[in-house]
UniProtKB/TrEMBL annotation:
UniProt cross-references to CDD domains, sorted A to Z: DEADc_DDX31, SF2_C_DEAD
Free-text function comment from the UniProt entry: RNA helicase.
Source organism (scientific name): Acacia crassicarpa (northern wattle)
Coiled coil: none
Pfam families: CTE_SPB4, DEAD, Helicase_C
Catalysis performed (reactions): ATP + H2O = ADP + phosphate + H(+)
Residue ranges occupied by any Helicase C-terminal domain in the UniProt entry: 327-499
SUPFAM superfamilies: P-loop containing nucleoside triphosphate hydrolases
Assigned keywords, A-Z: ATP-binding, Helicase, Hydrolase, Nucleotide-binding, RNA-binding
UniProt protein name: ATP-dependent RNA helicase
Region Disordered, residue ranges: 274-301
PANTHER family linked to this entry: RNA HELICASE (PTHR24031)
Superkingdom in the source lineage: Eukaryota
């Protein structure tokens, strides 16, 4: 099949570069998210521009799209570092579709896969696939598809056999197919995209990625390249790496997968900042054939490098360990009463903690002190969802799809929802358990305040963990204190609507004491929830021991009072009893395959 480089890609991009640079620079000056140019001025095919407008409702490109699209159209390898929710997905999908629809002689399913998008989680896989479906509506001959853990392998094999032009995949399952699905054709592979590149590596997929690249290289290697050259007049392979938090961890991947890349949104030691990146595509012709490899330590990541949406209101709340649960419930109630319709995501460190809090919140009934005996009611009305890596795939899919469309709901999740997921209209992110690495903080809060919308985030810290704020500050995240006492004072007690007295300590606040007591009796009376509370306690303590590096000095298990941790799971029992039951479980599991704690914490909730 013959293919030509799109006539208008580099030419149009070159011709419009000066205008483009002006547009992007204007955008940067007034600090808005959108660029003052059109999609068509970036060199995209008119049908794609129509689809972006008609089907997606995108009138103009975002700043990152305005910067990235012409460079990606030009065929250069690219590293994109832009804040969460700035439109990176379309920034890489649109140019690929542009090229594929422009090939001389339509591409066919039997050609196999042309573009591969690697993502760290199943939900992100589905999300990218759905966007692809929309963008490809008018290009029925370009077939989107996905393969990911938890899906039926045989059905995936059948789809791969028929041919998938743009394949979205999680690394483990992709490698499985590369090894075991002989009908999976990828000799025409031209694009590899690592979306959330740093997360893919953090999840321990480094080895898989190396193997994947080796496999792809071996099939498209020497023997086939001649063939490929005749099909594609230029650029045999174009690789793209994207994330809001590209950091040193990506250096290795960048080194092995990128040649002479253009850096977008990155402070580099050896390349110019963003504004000159556009001009680096001007030097395309000069750099053609240039074998410059990605230089070591190219990514210069000084502290304060992470980009958090500027309109996001970031706060922290300092809560003694034993009062965490009562405070969480109070804040959730306060927020839901303040704004009847709003979406909130609460992050936990483990799947067990998600399960416990989900069931508790779904069932907890409460009656205000000295109110009518039959005034017991569900503490928090409204829909609650949960999402974590130990859930059945169908439940995960259902939660993901439903929470997206809800106008008002609560989602309890592990970090499985931290990366890339685009839930519309999430107003508030609560990090009930600390995220650990600052990168994860950035991605978790990035689920709100997307594309210039308003949003707020709240980080729970115990008094002994307060130094974590300095760590975040070093990475450019400044948090102010949440007015907790004001919120607690707003709850009616003893039949009064408002407290006349302001209480100074959270531990002795009558509302907190009353709520804690009610929670403990409720959990004691519900064996199923009680069991989940004990499991949640055990896994929470284990997760707490897995903080790494400098963070170990802040999140020190030795500083924790386990009795207070138990209280935060509404357990009245001595923690030693809980630990005993955990030890019994652990003993039973001793003969099962051991998994490193740190790895387990990271992976259990995420893949
Ligand atoms: N040009 C545009 N005009 C209007 N909306 C857009 C445009 N581009 C993207 N969007 C919307 O912006 C939102 C964020 O886009 P996207 O998920 O691609 O961001 P992202 O930068 O990949 O975020 P993250 O870093 O969290 O993965 C989505 O709802 C998307 O539909």
């Amino acid at each position: 099949m013959g293919a030509k480089r799109s006539a208008n890609s580099s030419e149009a991009a070159t011709g419009k570069k000066i205008k483009m640079k002006e547009a992007v620079n204007n955008e940067r000056k007034d600090g808005t998210i959108f660029a003052s140019c059109s999609f068509s001025s970036l060199g995209l095919h008119p049908t794609i521009c129509n689809e972006l407008l008609g089907r997606m409702g995108f009138e103009v490109p975002t700043s990152v799209q305005a910067q990235a699209i012409p460079v990606i159209l030009s065929g250069r390898h690219v590293l994109v570092n832009a804040a969460t929710g700035t439109g990176k997905t379309v920034a890489y999908l649109a140019p690929i579709i542009h090229h594929l629809q422009n090939f001389d002689g339509r591409i066919q399913r039997s050609d196999g896969t042309y573009a591969l998008v690697l993502v760290p989680t199943r939900e992100l896989c589905l999300q990218v696939y759905e966007i692809l479906q929309k963008l490809l509506h008018r290009f029925h001959w370009i077939v989107p598809g996905y393969v990911m853990g938890g899906e039926n392998r045989s059905k995936e094999k059948a789809r791969l056999r028929k041919g998938i032009s743009i394949l979205v995949a999680t690394p483990g399952r992709l490698l499985d197919h590369l090894k075991n699905t002989s009908s999976f054709l990828y000799t025409n592979l031209r694009w590899i995209i690592f979306d959330e590149a740093d997360r893919i590596l953090e999840l321990g997929f480094g080895k898989e990625i190396k193997e994947i690249l080796d496999h792809l290289d071996s099939k498209t290697g020497c023997a086939n390249q001649e063939n490929a050259v005749s099909r594609h007049s230029r650029t045999l392979r174009q690789n793209l790496l994207l994330s809001a938090t590209l950091n040193e961890k990506v250096n290795h991947l960048a080194k092995i997968s990128l040649e002479n890349p253009v850096m977008i949104g990155i402070n580099c030691k050896e390349t110019e900042p963003i504004s000159t990146n556009l001009s680096s595509s001007e030097s395309d012709e000069e750099s053609e054939g240039n074998e410059t490899k990605y230089p070591s330590n190219m990514l210069h990541t000084p502290a304060g490098d992470y980009k958090v949406p500027t309109q996001l209101i970031q706060r922290y709340v300092k809560v003694p360990c034993g009062d965490r649960l009562a405070v969480l419930l109070s804040i959730l109630k306060y927020l839901s009463e303040r704004e009847a319709s709003q979406k909130i995501v609460v992050f936990f460190s483990t799947c067990d903690a998600v399960d416990f809090h989900f069931l508790l919140l779904s069932e907890f009934q409460f009656s205000y002190p000295q109110s009518e005996a039959d005034a017991r009611q569900i503490f928090l009305g409204g829909k609650v969802f949960r999402l974590h890596g130990n859930m059945d795939q169908e439940d995960r899919r259902k939660t993901f799809q439903t929470f997206k469309t809800e106008k008002s709901a609560l989602l309890f999740s592990t970090d499985v929802a931290a990366r890339g997921l685009d839930f519309p209209k999430v107003r508030c992110i609560i990090q009930y358990d600390s995220p650990g690495e600052a990168t994860e903080y950035v991605h978790r809060v990035g689920r709100t305040a997307r594309l210039g919308e308003r949003g707020e985030s709240l980080l729970f810290l115990q008094p002994v963990e307060i130094d974590y704020l300095q760590d975040l500050e070093k990475h450019g995240a400044s948090l102010t204190e949440y007015p907790l006492l004001k919120v607690l004072d707003s709850f009616p007690l003893y039949g009064q609507k408002k407290h006349t007295k302001n209480f100074v300590a959270i531990e002795s606040h009558p509302w907190v004491l009353c709520l804690q007591k009610a929670l403990e009796s409720f959990v004691t009376s519900k064996p199923k929830i009680d069991k989940l509370a004990k499991r949640g306690f055990c896994s929470w303590v284990r997760a707490y021991t897995t903080h790494r590096g400098e963070l170990k000095k802040i999140f020190m298990i030795k500083k924790l009072h386990l009795g207070h941790v138990a209280k935060s799971f509404a357990l009245k029992q001595q923690p030693s009893l809980v630990a005993k039951s955990y030890k019994k479980q652990a003993k039973r599991k001793r003969f099962q395959k051991p998994i490193g704690l740190a790895k387990k914490r990271k992976i259990a909730g995420v893949t």
